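Q: Make up one entry.
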Amino acid sequence: MKRKVNYLYRSNLGFLKTKTKLVGINGKYVSFFCKNSTTFRIILFCLVIISSLTLNVACKKKDSAQNPVNHPVPNVPVNINVYPNDPTNFKIQAIGGWVYYPGGINGIIIYRKSTQEFVAIERTSSYLPNNSAALAKVQSDNFILRDTVSNSKWQIIDGTITNGPATWPLRLYGTSYDGNVLKIVN
């Protein structure tokens, strides 16, 4: 705990003056900041500059090149209803299951994240969107998607890049599930 203490001292001209200093628990002066206000101001100024630079970097907007509007894979209309409980869709009845489904540009990968959450990912490679042979294919680990032409890799849970040369994630479609019908839209 710190407290202010007033004390008397004699100035250079012989006059008595009063000064206030902060005193810590053990009675010693808290720091050199109280003795030297110039040093305190310099350190405070440096801290303010460092803080403002840190905030400037942290609050910087993401590069506009990664704006979904600029995504290399075209945005096509998608409005599909899938019935996961149907026996023909048995692969997506369990968590972690996936299936290739027709729709989008070159097909959609549907992945079941949880009992109520699905992910729908466009199979068209974000690295070679004009090459119909460049498709995202689920690997044997059931976690990674690999472009069959460029060998770019993405995560199946959200389409993020795990290995280039691709610099864009795969295009995701919106999903909603009511316990019976999975709706995939964009």
